[in-house]
């Protein structure tokens, strides 16, 4: 932790929406990885006038103000007693004062707009219960990242999952209502799928997505954009040994198997082998079936069994949890012991509160 480090106030906290969480991430993840030279340069820069001086901030703002007059040229020291010169000096002074007032007004307006936007963003994020939660095991601390912030992060005592068991029909309606992502626009989401996601999706994943589409629970399947985020995370932690809870027809499983290196393995657990078998022919066709150890079971007893073998502790690089939400806390405790230090757990869709009649 950076002792006495100046609190960094970010111009935009981005998705975190919490200054404390941002500071926590800086102190536990960012500063420890920052090379000494960058650290030194950051400290040296922190005291530079162009960063901290309100005068220079005013200057740069005023140069952006369309109405503000350019700074007047320095007064020519002709005759200090000349009335024309005094008049000009007064005029210049009042122009400068007007410019300063314009700048102040503009600054206030920008601040008010930013505040209103951030309040709107926060409100809309709070209203949604959909988020992806990433947890990384560290030496002593657990790092928690929210892609979409909750009202109160787990790190501050919040509870990530409240689930009510719903009928399949009710659940389907809820899922249909959930926003696809932070974009808040179906058209933009489709545009991104078509221009960025589908062109990068492997032909096997595409086939599996099409085969799954006609299944009554097709909405269970991991969305292709989420899949590509997962692939990035798998590569980022250089995942070799992974575990997946909740397989369904196998979209996330196939994606993981296609992403991890040749000889590496995935333990995949699901209570339902039937749905896994829908995707199995495509998994075989993709040539990665050998990487998968599918276990038909409730996930919890399998995790307990794995933990009984000391060698499994701290041996997994990555876990994807996409099974029954009521057990997420139970999975979390066990996965933290199975993961390597630096390993990553991705929880898909951890709705804060689901009401069957919402
Ligand atoms: C949302 S789907 C998984 C989707 C999958 N990741 C994909 O990409 O298609 C949830 C799966 O969890 C399984 N499941 C539910 N409860 C479970 C439990 N207690 N243990 C293991 N699997 C469970 C269900 O059978 C279902 O296939």
UniProtKB/TrEMBL annotation:
Keyword Cell wall biogenesis/degradation: no
Keywords for this protein: Methyltransferase, S-adenosyl-L-methionine, Transferase
Keyword Lipid biosynthesis part of the UniProt annotation: no
SUPFAM superfamilies per record: S-adenosyl-L-methionine-dependent methyltransferases
Gene Ontology terms, MF aspect: O-methyltransferase activity; S-adenosylmethionine-dependent methyltransferase activity
Gene3D superfamilies referenced in this protein's UniProt entry, alphabetically: Vaccinia Virus protein VP39 (3.40.50.150)
InterPro entries found in the cross-reference section: Cation-dep_OMT, SAM-dependent_MTases_sf, SAM_O-MeTrfase
Biased composition (Low complexity): 49-67, 77-86
Name the record gives this protein: Caffeoyl-CoA O-methyltransferase
């Amino acid at each position: 932790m950076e002792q006495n480090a100046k609190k960094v106030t970010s111009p935009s906290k981005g998705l975190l929406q919490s200054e404390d969480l941002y500071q926590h991430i800086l102190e536990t993840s960012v500063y420890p990885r920052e090379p000494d030279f960058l650290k030194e340069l950051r400290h040296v820069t922190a005291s530079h006038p162009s960063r901290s001086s309100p005068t220079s901030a005013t200057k740069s703002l005023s140069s952006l103000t369309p109405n503000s007059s350019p700074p007047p040229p320095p007064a020519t020291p002709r005759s200090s007693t000349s009335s024309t010169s005094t008049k000009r000096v007064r005029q210049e002074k009042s122009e400068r004062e007007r410019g300063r007032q314009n700048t102040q007004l503009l600054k206030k307006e920008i601040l008010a707009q930013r505040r209103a936007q951030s309040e709107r963003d926060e409100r809309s994020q709070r209203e949604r219960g959909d988020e992806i939660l990433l947890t990384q095991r560290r030496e002593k601390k657990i790092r928690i990242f929210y892609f979409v912030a909750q009202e109160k992060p787990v790190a501050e005592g919040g509870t990530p999952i409240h689930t009510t068991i719903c009928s399949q029909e009710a659940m389907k309606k809820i899922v249909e209502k959930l926003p696809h992502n932070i974009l808040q626009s179906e058209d933009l989401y489709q545009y991104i799928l078509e221009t960025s996601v589908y062109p990068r999706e492997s032909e096997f994943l595409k086939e599996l997505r099409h085969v799954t589409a006609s299944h009554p629970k097709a909405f269970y399947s991991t969305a292709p954009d989420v899949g590509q985020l997962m692939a990035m995370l798998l590569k980022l932690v250089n995942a070799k040994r992974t575990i997946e809870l909740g397989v369904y027809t196998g979209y996330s499983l196939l994606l993981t198997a296609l992403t991890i290196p040749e000889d590496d393995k995935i333990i995949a657990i699901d209570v339902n082998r039937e749905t896994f078998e829908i995707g199995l022919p495509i998994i075989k066709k993709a040539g990665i079936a050998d990487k998968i150890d599918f276990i038909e079971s409730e996930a919890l007893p399998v995790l307990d069994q794995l933990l009984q073998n000391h060698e499994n502790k701290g041996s997994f690089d990555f876990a994807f949890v996409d099974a029954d939400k009521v057990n997420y806390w139970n999975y979390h405790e066990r996965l933290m012991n199975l993961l390597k230090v630096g390993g990553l757990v991705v929880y898909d869709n951890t709705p804060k509160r689901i009401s069957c009649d919402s």
